[in-house]
Amino acid sequence: MYFTDVHLRDIINFTDIQGGIIDKQGSILKFKSDDIRHDVMYAFVTECLVEDSDLEFFLTTASRDVISEYCRSWWYERREGERCLYVPDEPGKMYDLFIDKLQLDIITHCTMSDKRITDRISKRLNIPEEVLGRNFDARQRFVKNSKLGSKEMFRARGMIVGCAGAGKTTLLRKLHGRIETDWNKPSKTTIGLEVHEDLFTIEDNKLIDFGMDKTDSDEKPYLDKKVISMTDFAGQVAYYACHQVYLSRRAFYIVVVDMSKKLKKESRMYDRDRHDPTGSLFHSWTYGDYVHFWLQTINTYCNDGITKKDPKDTREIKDSGVNVNFQPVILVATHKDKLVGLCKTSDTMDAFFSEVEECLSKEQTLKQLISPYRYFEVECPSKVLTRDQQRSIDLVKKCIVETVQQLPQWGEKIPLKWFEIERILNQKKSNGDRVLKRHQLMETAKTFLMDENDLNDVLRYLHEIGKIIYFSEDKLKETIIIDVQWFVDAFKYIITDKKHFARKDSKNIFVNTGKISKKYIEEVWKSIKGIYNSLWQSYVNNKDDIFQYMNKLGLMTKLETKGGVDNDEKMYYIPSMNRTDLPDGRKDEIYRKQKSSMMVYFFKSYLPHFFFFRLVVNCLRKWKVCNEESFFKNAAFYKAEEAGHFFAIAVSKTSIQLQVFTQDESVKEECVKKIRQTVESLIKEITETFHRGIIYDSGFSCKDINITDEDEEYFLKESEIIQEIRNSQEMPPCPRHLFEPNDHKVDANKIHMCLLERGSSMSIRDN
């Protein structure tokens, strides 16, 4: 029968079948038409699939063709006239039977339009989740290549994050446990970030040192190991802009906090030689603010909405009423030996954890990231550890193993062709190559019967998992950064060069404004010549590619020069280094001009601090700056295409602000709408780099405030007033302050000229 793949048995008498609905083709019975088949299927579903056990039997015994043609996931939105059987998402085994029947072919099935099933497919078939978000052609190529052969990959990356001086590097050394002189000395401040590839392996559920076991001669066996790499992030705020290169939902995180420091005390009061945020956006942050920052960053960049409950954690999250879910975050409190006046007993063991929770009292979602069962207090003196100190470190190591083994990508399967390309790139990196041209790799890929699209797929995957940096845009697609540490170091050397602070002129220009010449950047790279001869040469030789990639990532951008000549005097701008506030005089100047309403993009839960830096850089791809004094740490000014019009973008604690102004008699509505539409497209482009949806509301400031002023009190959602504004002939009362002492009216005309033909609330998610 059609439904089971079972051939017609001799005992079936074809002449006994009435109604002319069946057609005999050799030894197979088929329905005479698709309409008849659909009608019979409808009757079968409604009359026979009554209980869960009926559906379970059907999913187990029916042919793949039938399951593929008729079955859809529960939240699938069918097309008009489409006949389908919805498979319920509960109990979960129904989805598993559905997936098991179709196997890899399910990722090219129409049910993939239901994004809610992709996580289940990824985990059930061990397919990289990134692949499931690609278009149909890319998914089809993945299926084709996987059927030719695939390989399980057991690898993970740990990110050690926290404020400067918290003890991140020291903790990593103790976890590693090598007996080396350098590793037993007090640690120096980490500069930028340091990547330790394949530092650990897991054997017999134990975390052991793997660094000494790697050799070129046994590369293939090495790649069959279960390996863990570690990235040690610098805590200094100057380097936060480049952290985006590595932050990933694929990683697990160790958040390190110095428990000897007061969480409510400003961090700049501690370790000024290691960490000085003076003048930056982080100037007045407390130590607790940094804990909040890192957890919010992890939640935003990396939380993939895992719903697997942590079996150990029985806490209830207030307001939501749901149990805490497993999240790959380990909280480690260091410097326990430096505590004064605290009795180190089991009664006080978790007192500091409670303090951290108190810092997150208003952030229930962040509380889900941490757990007392993944919280540890350690002592990491520079000398050899005592037995009790080592026992604490061993507990952290055990938790790392447990956490890694619960990561969704642990044991994922990739096509063998992808594995071979990755192996070749690893070899080239081991040989000292930092950059590879795509056409060179394409020649090698052809030996594995791969075409341009196949290579694009694997490069995109390797970029997504953090092995390389690669973008397929026209200006970048020919260059592959295969040594990510080398690339990040290129930025590190620029922003940490001691000569910046030794030279008075350089200090005034670069340290305060973030502007630096191309010539001086090359001088910085050449200054490391005495230490790393090949390193400085690699930077100079690949400077154009480095500059383009840094521009793409929002780390720096090229500024216009008079005459537009590209020479050694060409100036670059690094937003994260700018420590100059927008002067009050500049604010007053804008306030007195003819201007639009202040458009506000209010980020409901979290506005990443380097979001603004990237927006500043992206705007320079579209517009020129007003003049040489157009950049400040919290604002930037651009010339609009419309003559006599300018606009500013700015950042507050919770919002991105946009305002158009002019020296003419009035602001032109078409100009305002065009600028708004373009800026919003740039905001969307940046936001799509975050895995978790960054949700914000667009709206306006209900009062005429200065650019960069805090606007949360005056933020008016567009959806709250849009209809009233469109119909109003006069200034309506502000709905937000309607019953307050400071009630006032809003300027309907100014707001109306900013309105676009679309909804106001936006939620941008990674597809």
Structural write-up:
This protein has 27 helices and 27 strands. Strands 19, 20, 21, 22, 23, 24, 25, 26 and 27 form a nine-stranded antiparallel β-sheet that branches. It has a seven-stranded mixed β-sheet with strand order 8-7-9-6-10-11-12, sandwiched between helices.
Structural class based on helices, strands and sheet pairing: alpha+beta
The tally of strands reads 27
Average pLDDT works out at: 81
Beta-strand fraction estimate: 15-25%
Describe the largest sheet.
9 strands, antiparallel
What does the radius of gyration come to? 30 Å
Percentage of residues in helical conformation: 25-40%
The low-confidence runs, each spanning 5 or more residues with pLDDT under 50, are 1-12, 305-311, 314-324, 759-767
CA-based shape: globular
Amino- and carboxy-terminal Cα gap: 40 Å
Q: In DSSP terms, counting alpha (H) and pi (I) runs of 4 or more, how many helices?
A: 27
